[in-house]
Amino acid sequence: MAAFPSPTTGALVFRTIAIAEACSWAGLLIGMFFKYVVVRNDIGVTVFGPIHGVLFIIYVVVTLVVARDFRWSVGTTVVALVASIPPLATLWFERRARRTGLFSGVPAVADQAA
């Protein structure tokens, strides 16, 4: 059984979380720059640290659900998960997934309904 009501919803949720995770990474990096270089104040890290942590966890969970729903290979799933570690790499993977048709496959729920 698929976790999302439709393949389009799964792809949209993945895209949204990938973008949000990348933006939170950027915010955290900017906060770290200000903390250690500019003003020596950790407010940026205090704000973006927890936000990025939560979005990172959500990205991992959504990736695992989407990978199962769209029957991604283990290698593709690992690349998607590893993309959450370098800054902004989730944007690269999301674009790659759209370009290579990883969201256009028949989700697992379609086989069960037939």
TrEMBL record:
The chain crosses the membrane at residues 12-34, 46-66, 72-93. Its main location: membrane. Keywords: Cell membrane, Membrane, Transmembrane, Transmembrane helix. It is a multi-pass membrane protein. It is found in: Cell membrane. Residues 13-99 form the DUF3817 domain. The keyword Magnesium does not apply. It comes from the Bacteria. PANTHER family: MEMBRANE PROTEIN, MEMBRANE PROTEIN-RELATED. This is DUF3817 domain-containing protein.
